Structures
1.
Amino acid sequence: MADRTIQLVVQYDGRAFRGWQRQPDQPSVQQALETVLARLVQAPVPAIGAGRTDAGVHATGQAVGVVVPERWHAEALRRAMNALLPDAVWIAAAHEMRADFHARYSAEARRYRYLVGLDEAARSPFRRHFEWRPPAVVDRDRLDAEAAALPGEHVFLAYAVKGTAPADDDHRCRIVHAAWEPRPGGLAFVVEANRFLHHMVRFLVGTMMDVAMGRRSPGTVAALLHATDNRDVSVPAPAHGLYLERVMYPASLYAAPAVAA
């Protein structure tokens, strides 16, 4: 029987899980998807994510690759899975892909968004679990100046958890966009790159916010791009403000034209 390769565009509330990756005795997004897939297909189906989000991190556009029997068209699979998935997970879209598609290795870029609340209403129970309210006044000009140092190709040893990448990994990433944007009640840090390291976005946000709150000197973000370890990086920003927003793939990998995650 022939198979069909499908990309699922998945949204989830990170509070309900201990992260993306399957793990024993802990709820994960991967496990939630694979449990439903096995029920529908009547056989184990691996769900391959574009990246591993940590406990508490949300997603509005996590890309997940699955291979299912040919009878399962993309939209039919999306609807069937949404009928069975827990409330904290929702599949926003499903695209049929070429057989050589791989959710992780085929990705050209990934985009994250980190939400910061600056008004009093950020304490609301409807916002406090989905954005970070910093404990001091934030200087927007300093934030913009720190973010301006990031676009380009750099070694991010200072902005990664030590020992989480392979020993031969050079920790080099190419950032194509990094900027703070205004939003109702606060700001959003939007960053797009070819790859991200473990805790990288949260380390960047934590360091930029320390500069913006006067806890560190201007130019700290740029200086740490030359560091050979992470001993001087700031404490990472809380996980609940971070969202995996989108994963981008070559158009040639889609089985149908004019589709996007």
2.
Amino acid sequence: MPAEAINTKDYLEKNKRLVEELLDRYLPSEAEEPQSLHAAMRYSVLAGGKRLRPILAFAAYEYCHGDLNGQDLPIHYAMAALEMVHTYSLIHDDLPCMDDDDLRRGILTCHKKFDEAVAVLAGDALHDIAFKLMAMTDSIQAVKELAQALGTKGMIGGQMADVEAEGKDITEQEITLIHQRKTGALIRCSVRIGAILANADQTLLNKLTIFGEKIGLAFQIIDDILDIEGDQKLLGKKVGSDSKKVKATYPKVMGLKQAHSKADQLIQDAVDVFDDYNDNIFKNLAQYIAQRKR
């Protein structure tokens, strides 16, 4: 497939629509009890966003020649599950006891729209549904991948380290470990799950794993940079919050210029994993992450 045949914008838009359809299908209806809880879940999950994690899973599945015939395929369950756990993490991250944010994706955060108790339970419920969906893939390995990415060695552990690092001087090695777990683990996991569900061989899985690790860390470094240089309207959330909360970030540890250089190098390393035209979508997705404004 020649490089020019893949239009990244069209690819992202097409698969974002697929993700939206899956989320709407698999989320409980607001008409079902408990209505307020289901309303909060749908409010947060369907509020938009890049849908990057499920799209990465789909890209890996497609690249590894997974079966795309039919509705409610294992990859569909996995895509919805990944976006649900991502949203659950955002709901909890926005709470007053964590980052205390008022806006997310350009609208009120869940606890501001509803209340703190509903927000906590909405996050918990999304976590539960996500694992039910992942179990429906009939892949024990995929379930294990998600659990490991979210646990104390992954996102939750990274978030704990992030909280403990507030206001402290830390090293580049320490901030890298925080970012690899807090954000990178779920992105890496998304790529791996797509490949696993397509029965990729170990060589290919290893290749995609390296790609996921590189873009996962780059994604969070760019997030740190956007909190300084970003446009609040494009981001859909307030900028400058990391500095106010004395959060551990790459610009704080290394300086803004070196943070840019680090992100650029990681993106290049991710691109260099692939060496043929058929992998072009991964190269384009890496560049999309590098150039994102939100």
